[in-house]
Amino acid sequence: MPEPHRPGQRHFVADLGETPLSEVDKLDESTPPLSLWADAWRHLRRQPIFIVSALLILLVLALAIAPGLFARTDPLSCHLQDGLEPSRAGHPFGFDRQGCDVYARVVYGTRTSVAVGFFTTAIVVFLGAAIGAIAGFYGRFWDALLSRVTDIFFAIPLVLAAIVVMQVFRDRVTIWAVIAVLSVFGWPQIARITRGAVMAVKNSDYVTAAKALGTTKFRTLLRHVLPNAAAPVIVTATVSLGIFIVAEATLSFLGIGLNASKIVSWGADINYASATIRTNPSVLFYPAAALALTVLSFIMLGDAVRDALDPKARQR
Amino acid sequence: MTPMVEMNLAGRRTDPNAPLVEIKKLCVSFQTSAGEVRAVRDLDLTIYPGQTIAIVGESGSGKSTTAHAIIDLLPGTGKVTSGQIWFDGKDIVTASKDEIVSLRGREIGMVPQDPMSNLNPVWRIGYQVKEALLANNVTSNREAKHRVAELLAEAGLPDAASRAKQYPHEFSGGMRQRTLIAIGLAARPRLLIADEPTSALDVTVQRQILDHLGTLTRELGTAVLLITHDLGLAAERAEQLVVMYQGRVVESGPAIEILQHPQHPYTKRLVKSAPSLASRRIETAKHEGIEVTELLAQTGGEGAEHGETKDIMVVKDLTKVFTIRGGRPGASKKFTAVDDVSFAVRRGTTMALVGESGSGKTTVANIVLNLIDPTSGKIYFDGLDLSTLNKEELFSFRRRVQPVFQDPYGSLDPMFSIYRTIEEPLRTHHIGDRKSRELKVRELLDKVALPGSTMRRFPNELSGGQRQRVAVARALALDPEVVVCDEAVSALDVLVQAQILKLLNQLQSDLGLSYLFITHDLAVVRQIADEVCVMEAGRIVEAASTDEVFDHPKTDYTRALLEAIPGGSIELGLADLD
Question: Who's near B59: CB < 8 A, 6+ residues apart?
């Protein structure tokens, strides 16, 4: 029984001119193709935190690669008569107790810190990602075995373990010894994160589809699972880069790291300057500030990159 | 019902001939990095007290945005830019925050879409209903407990008093949705907004819940604004329809009138493709399909001299038992997901496996794809026993059987360009060189009606339907004989769904494909399948040709499934549509 139409409820048909009908589910070809990384880059470009930290990191890298361009004084040629002298022309940060130029030591120390940070992170990411990925992807026996090994290493505090092992090297400490020691005890965190990310990804339909195509397990892991699990690993890596720089400084500060008279390092300089903290705090201030700024910029970069890669945190 | 509530209702009763909601020239916009996006444009809508009105449209048409604008819950940067929303003589657009808060729950209730995420998992069911009562000052704290049980019972939960002490995870999807309905109606609102209230549920549960909701709101005199993408469902439940497309109302009016005499081309398109309404086998493909199978039979294989279609895949006495964790540590339970299932897929035809969630149909698909091993039983593919395959044989079997999965957002690797996605099977099976593979990818994209430029894009730039077409292209890259479609169209809008079904039919007739089509939707089955197996709790309860199952269902379960197809009873003048 059709009721008479009530006001406002008559059969209404819109003018076709106002609502042109497009083809069902037509591909919008007006926008250029994008990708996860392109999206992340567009997002990052507008982040002040990213820009500031990226510029700082570029500066730090430049200092590490070519310190000679920034400081003409040799950080190892020290004259005792200059000991604890204040700044003067050509020596903007003054001199430390041994009469070494603080500015030159800060500049040359960059290379040690950055090298330790970079190489340790590279080794740790490679080792941790490989172990975590195998544990997460193959599961069962491998997971049980590798996860327990990871737990054992995880239980040992990084710096404490490094202190014990560094005793072995004593006077023969090189950058590579520091990197090796930090790597051996630094990988469990990355391994855990990789394992979790891999386990989340491996249940995706596209992994099943790859299996149904006849793709081998290892190839699936390499081509589908790892790239999709990479985002949290990259972020953790940028943060841990800062942590490793601090760890190197800690070891040098404790006197079991690099030898300040042979290798310039921020940590060793901080250690050495701590004796004169009351009388000449500026000697301590400059290497400490350089260290803090470098670590901070890496952590900020990690934060910004995480936000850019995480679709949930991203605002469109 | 407590006398107090009745008084409340009586006290608020207004003229039934005055509109309860009157929306005039409503415009809603979202601010995005790409600028202003106009989600709703010049929308007019009138709802009278006690009336049920449905807004129908595809995803992104602005139907949910309209509903959220009424209750002032626009997400993120959404803003009403112009127009008015009159609710019982008050303009919601210009109303103060306090006025709107007092409207919510008390005057306008809401039943959200996803029952799984809309109940707080750490609070008991009863507490969450009580919260709705107390927030609107409907009852005192003392009476609330009693009232909660009443409300839950009213929403159709048996044994409501003890159920109220349970937690959401102890409830099934249907029970959760009933709880949400109880919450929505707790303060006896005069308007209930139901945003796709049953799209996450099985068809039979959907029917029960909508029936119940209908009865309840009729008794209470509540007006209902139903948001849905299913035209059949809308027509069955609502007196008035509003069809939205790209943020505009393209057609509105009495439901029957719109269904039988759709005027706007978009509405016509919707009416034509709604599976629940136009359910019959897509005919061209059926005829051509048989021709192709005959052609196949003539050109190769045994049985050619008889000219009969041969079974490409035979499943015999298939059983799969899963061991699941028990209550105590170390304890385990056996769960039979698939129980003695046998069926066959004939070459060049479509076999549909139908069942509700938990019936074991996806497990069957995974076993057939040789992704998991059966506990017992055999699968023969073209005479080959799958359980005896060695590594090389399995690899070449993979070429011949390919899957298409349900979730268009999960089945493509987001880091792979479309080109790499479709090329991967060719590369894996060492087919052709770089140049010939690129040609093949282009050809496959063309087959699924996507432009060649798509291959430089990434999945996140495509819509669900487009991704699903890419998934089909990937499945076809190796020229398989059988494609296993696991709910391949369930997650898509009706029009896109119809488009994919048509495409699958076309491909079947062009390439002589056989489909194992797994779905919960009988309406879809009718459009694509030649034969049907109905599964319930791991068993096949009915197996016959599609026409046979639809015309003469033998078991009660099948009958219930058929009756649950929304809009099945509505007669259409389909002939005058073209």
Answer: B229, B464, B493
* CA-angle at B157, arms to B151 and B163, nearest 5°: 90
Mean per-residue pLDDT for A104-126? 91
Task: Give me B504's structure tokens.
Answer: 């699958």
- SS3 state of residue A294: helix
Q: Which pLDDT belongs to residue B326?
A: 63
Nearest CB partner across the interface for B398, out of A3, A206, A213? A213
pLDDT at position B296 is 44
Cα Rg of chain A (Å, integer): 28
HSE (side-chain half, CA atoms, 13 Å) at B326: 7
- What pLDDT was estimated at residue A33? 66
Query: CA nearest A8 in B: which residue?
Result: B46
Average pLDDT (A236-259) is: 81
Q: Quick check: A228 and B414 CB within 8 A?
A: yes
Give the whole-angstrom CA distance, residue B72 versus residue B30: 14
Separation of alpha carbons A100 and A84, rounded Å: 9
Concatenated DSSP letters of A239-287: HHHHHHHHHHHHHHHTTSSS-TTTS--HHHHHHHHGGGTTT-HHHHHHH
Q: Pick from A34, A205, A217 the residue to mutate for testing the B interface (most B CBs within 10 Å).
A: A205
Q: With 90 as the cut, is the pLDDT of residue A252 above it?
A: no
- Note the pLDDT of residue B276: 55
N residues, chain B: 578
Q: How many CB atoms within 10 Å of residue A183?
A: 20
CA dist A207 and A224 (Å) reads 7
| pTM confidence score | 0.79
Contact criterion met (CB < 8 Å) for B265 and A33: no
- With a CB cutoff of 8 Å and minimum separation 6, the contacts of A54 are A301
Cα–Cα distance for residue pair B261/B149, rounded to 1 Å:
45
- Residue whose C-alpha is closest to residue A57's, from A229, A297, A277: A297
B347-361: buried (b, 16+ CB within 10 Å) or exposed (e) per residue? bbbbbbbbbbeebbb
CB crowding B524-551: b at 16 or more within 10 Å, else e: bbbbbbbbbbbbbebebbbbbebeebbe
| Residue ranges in chain B whose pLDDT is less than 70 | 1-14, 33-34, 275-309, 326-330, 568-578
pLDDT at A122: 94
Whole-number Cα distances in Å, A214 to A10, B368, B385, B444: 59, 14, 18, 20
- The predicted complex's ipTM stands at 0.76
Q: For B89, left (φ over 0), alpha (ψ -120 to 50), or beta?
A: left
Under a CB-based contact definition with an 8 Å cutoff, are residues A292 and A245 in contact? no
Mutate to test the interface with B, among A6, A27, A207 (most CBs of B within 10 A): A27
Q: Which residues of B touch A5 (CB under 8 A)?
A: 253-254
Residue B265 class from Cβ within 10 Å (0-12 exposed, 13-18 middle, 19+ buried)? middle
